[in-house]
Amino acid sequence: MIMKTNKILTRENESINEITGSVVKFYKGIKLEYPEVYYLDYEVDEDTGIINREKKVKYYTKSQIKRNNESIKECFLYCKRSRCT
Hints:
- The protein is an alpha+beta fold.
- Helices cover about 25% and strands about 45% of the residues.
- The protein has one domain (about 10-80).
- The protein has one helix at about 60-80; strands at about 5-10, 15, 20-25, 30-45, 50-60.
- The strands form 2 sheets. A 3-stranded antiparallel sheet has the order 3-4-5, covered by helices on one side.
- The two termini are about 20 Å apart.
């Protein structure tokens, strides 16, 4: 399953491509493997609001969360119908 990647605007107003990765999870004895879409940006301390420019972490836009959830559901339903293990 291949997901289309979009451009994301970072904190520094740079346009970057989304990153896709494969995720493997086990749920109720079923092995789920699905693509995940995210982008990397600087880590922000939630308490102080200070941006750590040394470390980049995963972030998700609203549309990426929606696409990732749809991907998980599709994978789960496929495995459930075909009895994947």
